[in-house]
Amino acid sequence: MTEAEIIAFLSSLDGVVAMTASPETGAPEVAWGDTFFYYDPEQGEANQQLPFATLVVSDYPGWDTQSLLDRDGVFRLNVAVGRAAYERLIGHKPAAHADHSADYAELDVLLPHPLYAGQGWVSILNPGPRTAKLAQRLGIQAHDLAQRRWWRRLGRD
Question: Which residue of 54, 98, 125, 130 shows the fewest CB atoms closer than 10 Å?
Fold first, then answer.
């Protein structure tokens, strides 16, 4: 899957707002080109606090560099799958992430998120033949979780 295909797919889900960081959005320069996906059927900026998925296109020096995203054409899809799904997918609880190692630069493999695994986030660098369908399924699941959280906040669960 290309970056454009991922953005189009996640943006097509009900109530999704996709925001690509740029100078016009006021985002810091290090985030320019990254895309953040929010469930927000009201399309109000106040609701866009925590994305359910992100697409990151470069390293954040001094913070997030383990995926080596500064390689040509490399990007990382990050998905908030929740703690239970994380454990099913990765094989250990998110809280135990620090006790496990991974090659965060490996392409087309499901990985714990290098920084946010403890919050139930997973990632895939350049979803391809092995993980493209999984990436779509995880995006749908994360969207569904975000949708349920949104309705719960409104007291309409």
Answer: 98
